[in-house]
Design brief:
Elements lengths: L16 E7 L2 E7 L3 E6 L4 E2 L21 H4 L1 E6 L5 E7 L1 H5 L7 H14 L2 H16 L10 E5 L15
Antiparallel strand pairs: 1-2, 2-5, 3-4, 3-6, 6-7
Amino acid sequence: MRAATGDDAVIAYGSTLLLAVVCRQWLVLAQIGDGDILAIRSDGSALLPVPGDPVLDGRQTTSLCGPRAADEFRVAIVDLSSTALLGVMLATDGYGNAQLADPWTEVFSQDLAELLRSCEPASLADQLPVWAGRCASGEGSGDDTTIALLLAPDRTDHQQATEPAR
């Protein structure tokens, strides 16, 4: 990527930030830049709580490096006492851009829900670099890819998900 005419050389390559914080029954999500924050409900359906970026057009997006970064964060709060989740995936745009299904979030959410119910967290942690590498490769989007999973502490009983996720 090259800086456009008039771009400040310091901000030519912006930076995305995806954030998830759990405090008691509250899940606080914040995002600036492209990427995806995808929550997986206990039934396997997808929840996309953070509003989309109105500036994102495939070439331009908001960024931590922008002059209005503090104003351009998009935020969502999920009450875990009324919305049971298996987990949350945070991923830079290289992940979503590498997916074959369009839209990909429902297919991914169902697949991840199955994995979350059947795999140990350590096994999933071992797979994250593999998933990211595949997405970043020429077979994927070819874009750098960062993935993080925030898992509910007990993914088998989600009547009330009030414990902090680990």
